[in-house]
């Protein structure tokens, strides 16, 4: 990503250098004209403004800022996650609109699917988190996602819930193309982490009540609940998904997929075969559906 950041600095510098230089020259000429001919009270002001224009345009904007941004690389665009979630997103150049128009007919029968993804992938600065994920999940159905690395499944679930932006591929949740509509996805989906939640039943009940897509990280933790709490959690899932209103996407480790699938189907909860994702590219598909 450092190379991409440096290319962005170079292209920005190349595109704005002529405008900045021309504007600075005009403003300097205007203010400098008052130095020899202006009123005595205006001469110091004109000198200060003319000097400030030269300093700002040629030293700060044309030298220091590009140099610092090149040294920082991708970190120059770093923003705290809590602040990024609260700031509004403005598509000034219309890239999201162009993408919406280009993918208006993708996928076929889009109204059938609560989640549709093609070649979805996510990279961070050190490694590939997941790659090549293809999904077609009908509204009201359930999907179980598994991977050797639990961070990969958690990242995929966060992406589907609009909490994380993918770095490649296509993703659409009920009629909305992500990441351009991540704000909508966050409002209409619920992310429940059974592994870290102090009150899993409360969080599950709240998510099923307000969201059309419920994403559950670590659904295998149901087996660790007391029998009474487990039955209550399964009843909540059955009630929420039974009328076809709620689409369920959950994660579990590969070792618990078979037992967990039998548990959910035994509770009359519709669940598709497990989608196994990988974090490295291969010659064949990197996302495979296993029974």
Automatic annotation (TrEMBL):
Protein name stated in the entry: Transporter
Predominant location category: membrane
Membrane topology reported for the UniProt record: Multi-pass membrane protein
Native source organism of the sequence: Microbacterium ginsengisoli
Domain of life, source organism: Bacteria
Membrane transport protein MMPL domain ranges (all copies): 7-81
Keywords: Cell membrane, Membrane, Transmembrane, Transmembrane helix
Gene3D superfamilies recorded: Multidrug efflux transporter AcrB transmembrane domain
Listed InterPro entries: MMPL_dom, Mycobact_MmpL
Cellular component annotations (GO), alphabetically ordered: plasma membrane
UniProt subcellular location: Cell membrane
